[in-house]
From TrEMBL:
Keywords recorded for this protein, A-Z: ATP-binding, Kinase, Nucleotide-binding, Transferase
Protein name: Carbohydrate kinase
Xref: SUPFAM superfamilies: Ribokinase-like
Domain Carbohydrate kinase PfkB: 2-301
GO MF entry, a single one: kinase activity
CDD domains: bac_FRK
Species annotation: Meiothermus ruber
InterPro entries, per the entry: Carboh/pur_kinase_PfkB_CS, PfkB_Carbo_kinase, PfkB_dom, Ribokinase-like
PROSITE patterns linked: PFKB_KINASES_1, PFKB_KINASES_2
């Protein structure tokens, strides 16, 4: 069982020109960890999501879509009087998205049920929502359970701007729980703005945070990873890019799937793993991210996903 927590959003995706008198958007389910959960579920991995929605039409709609994707939903709470969060994504001519977020949780607190961690073999969290003061105690409670039961934990910062000092203080509190730290090149630049723009140097800075496995994704250029004293690099996969929404989340799904295939069932087993299959896992994750870029939104198309599973599953 993979347990994930994070923000649940309704994504409004548009390709609007400034000259247009009206705006047009397609609504879909979003949220970084939820995108990862949806792909893992499609790959046949038992998947549970812990999160919150508003008790409104969008919340009902989102909960129905999550359930359709065969993600366990009993630990998703609907909060009365709270609107379901929205993300507005404008796609530019290169397929890159510019995001605006709309959230209104008021003075509520994220209070996950400890039973959500039952049978967990892997726990994943990340994004800015993990650093919102209302969410931190709840996430820390789940991490404490993961530590107690030797559950592997992965983290994806998924930043959209340089973090402040409070972010760094909380990140350092999270790091002792994290076994797999996966960041994008943009994440690393935001985290280390004074560091030379060299992927290997940025990876070395990420490694110093202390996770046993550290991955830096490079977009079309592939990914580099570090395990113990070894560093490895895999190339990207050339595809016709429609948009890049969810590419990093797909990579994370591939990473979790690939590492679970190695039958690494605990933090202790990760420490004794030889890591020889990590380049293959990185390559498969790059392929999964690439096929997600061939369609609009964060859900990879069925036939390429099946072909990916036949090759890497």
């Amino acid at each position: 069982m993979v347990v994930l927590t994070g923000e649940i959003l309704v994504d409004l995706i548009g390709r609007n020109a400034l000259s247009r008198p009206t705006l047009s958007y397609n609504g879909t389910l979003g949220g970084s960890a939820l995108n990862t959960a949806a792909i893992l579920a499609r790959l046949g991995v038992p998947t549970r999501f812990v999160g919150e929605l508003g008790q409104d039409f969008l919340g009902d709609w989102a909960l129905a879509r999550i359930s359709e994707r065969k993600i366990e939903t009993r630990f998703i709470q609907q909060l009365p009087g709270i609107p379901t969060p929205l993300s507005l994504a404008e796609i530019d001519t290169k397929g890159e998205a510019q995001f605006s977020f709309y959230r209104a949780f008021g003075d509520t607190q994220f209070r996950p049920d400890s039973a959500a961690m039952a049978r967990a073999k892997w726990f994943h969290f990340g994004s800015l929502s993990a650093f919102a003061p209302r969410n931190i105690p709840g996430i820390e409670s789940l991490l404490e359970i993961a530590l107690e039961f030797d559950v592997l934990v992965s983290f994806d910062p998924n930043l959209h701007a340089s973090p402040d000092e409070a972010y760094w203080e909380q990140l350092l509190r999270y790091m002792p729980f994290i076994s797999v730290f996966k960041a994008s090149l943009d994440d690393a630049r935001y985290l280390f703005p004074k560091t030379p723009n060299d992927p290997q140097v940025l990876l070395e800075h990420l490694v110093e945070l202390g996770a046993p496995v550290t991955i830096l994704t490079l977009g079309a250029a592939g990914a580099i990873g570090a395990f113990r004293t070894r560093m490895m690099r895999v190339p990207g996969v050339k595809v016709a890019v429609l948009d890049t929404i969810g590419a990093g989340d797909a990579f994370t799904a591939g990473l979790i799937y690939g590492m679970m295939k190695q039958e690494i069932g605990s933090r202790m087993e990760l420490l004794t793993w030889d890591g020889t299959q990590l380049p293959v896992i990185l390559a498969s994750s790059c392929h999964l991210a690439a096929i997600t870029c061939t369609v609009e939104g964060a859900s990879p198309p069925e036939q390429p996903l099946h072909a990916w599973w036949e090759r890497f599953g």
